[in-house]
Every structure is written in structure tokens, then in C-alpha cells.
Amino acid sequence: MNFTPEQLAAYIDSTLLKPDASAAQIEQLCTEAREHGFYAVCVNGAWVAAARHFLEDSEVKVVSVVGFPLGALAADVKRFETEVAIDDGAHELDMVLNIARLKAGDDKFIFRELCDVVEAADERPVKVILETCLLTDAEKVRACKLAIESGAKFVKTSTGFNIAGASVTDVTLLRQTVGEKFGVKASGGIRDTLTALAMIEAGATRIGTSNGVAIVKGLVGGGNN
Fold first, then answer.
1. Contact, 53 vs 29, CB < 8 A?
2. Surface-to-core class of residue 89, CB atoms within 10 Å of its CB (0-12 exposed, 13-18 middle, 19+ buried)
3. CA 138/CA 133 separation, integer angstroms
4. Nearest Cα to 102, choosing from 155, 151, 63?
5. Range of the domain at 154
6. Percent share of the chain, pLDDT over 70
7. Taking residues 127-152, what's their average pLDDT?
8. What are the residue numbers of the active site?
9. What angle (nearest 5°) sits at the alpha carbon of residue 29, between those of residues 160 and 60?
10. Alpha carbon 11 to chain centroid, angstroms
């Protein structure tokens, strides 16, 4: 795969979701996103308005997480969290689905929860975080199908806050399940250029990482092969 730094940067949601992230760190995240041409920054809801301010007059999008990182909030809370994020200026939402309900086979609950968030997002793209490390392959497939039916635009592998993050195997499975046109975001543990390129080769259309600058610079150091 042959990418220019600009082409690779356009895949990246540059992420800062640490609970102790400061305003200065959010500003730095946004400055780097401007400089390198990342697709988006991904932040906790409390920082959405600040990120929009720091990215004023920029093409970089602002992504807010919802129900993060456990997915165990009440569905109504996720809907309200989405509405607040939209009011604060979020362009996209990355929502953790209710993992326990999915594993219990309660597809009706999951579908309703996803539909509520999609509706609250008011036509802004919703990415559904599956936390693949906690799911069987059959559960991943079910979650993908529910995400498609709900009107979401992406499935996303991981929060990056659990026992494992993205894998090429999971990205391949998600891509095979959702088809060619649906979004797949690989996130969690993607720290270098070769790993990012492997995820794209497997079918990822977006990369979530807190190491975006290093990944893009890695092309110069031989990561582009």
C-alpha cells in the first residue's frame, strides 16, 4: 500500500480520552490535527465545545464519545449525552453499545438503543463501538447487523480501555459482515505506521489512535510498504 502522509492522515481520528486530559492537552491535540490534516479529533463530551473552538475555521471534525467506556449507561442517558454533544458542536458520535445486553441476546434492546442515538444525532454519523475483545465472532456479526439496521454509519472495534484493542482478524470480520460501503473504524492499540496500514488493508476506513503524529511521520521512516 502506498500512501502519502496526507492520505494516511485523512484516515485518522486523533484521540485523547484520558480522564485527566487538560485544556492545554486538548488544544495541542487540535493544533496537531490542523497541522497534519487528520480527519477528526475524538474527545470526551466535556471537551467538545473547546475542541470546536480550537478547530474554528478548520476542516478537522470533532467526534464525541457516548456511553464511554463501558456502554452500561441507561439508553435514555446515552440519548441525552448525544443531544448535548450535538448542541456543543460534535460532527460525529462514537457510542459504546450495551455489551451485556448484546451478550444476553437482547437484540431488541440493542436495536432500540442504537436507533435512539442515531435519531438524536440528527443525521450526523454514529459509530457503534462493539468492544470486540469481549465478544464472540457470532456476537460481532449480530452487532454489525443491528448497527446497519439502526441507521448508524460505522462499526468500531474497541474503546482502547479494555483487555485488548483492534486486531486485523476482527477488522476483516467486520468488513466482511458490513459490506463494502459501510464504515469500519479500527481503534485501540494502534501505535505505529505498519499496524495502521495493516488495519486499512484489512478494511478499516478510519483509524482511531492517540499516536497519529508518529503514525504519519512513520511513512518517512519506512512504514509505507
1. no
2. middle
3. 13
4. 155
5. 5-219
6. 97
7. 98
8. 94, 156, 185
9. 95
10. 11
Nearest residue to 41 via CA among 189, 32, 202, 21: 32
pTM over the 0.85 mark:
yes
Place of cell 496500514: 197
The answer to whether residue 225 sits within a structural domain is no
165 within domain boundaries: yes
CATH number at residue 40: 3.20.20.70
Q: What is the CA radius of gyration of the chain?
A: 16
Q: How far is Cα 117 from Cα 108, in angstroms, rounded to an integer?
A: 14
Domain count along the chain: 1
Q: Among 18, 23, 8, 53, which residue's Cα sits nearest to residue 219?
A: 8
Q: Is 185 within a domain?
A: yes
Q: What single-letter amino acid sits at 176?
A: Q
C-alpha cell at 185: 473504524
Residue 224 resides in a domain = no
**Which cell numbers hold the place of 13?**
481520528
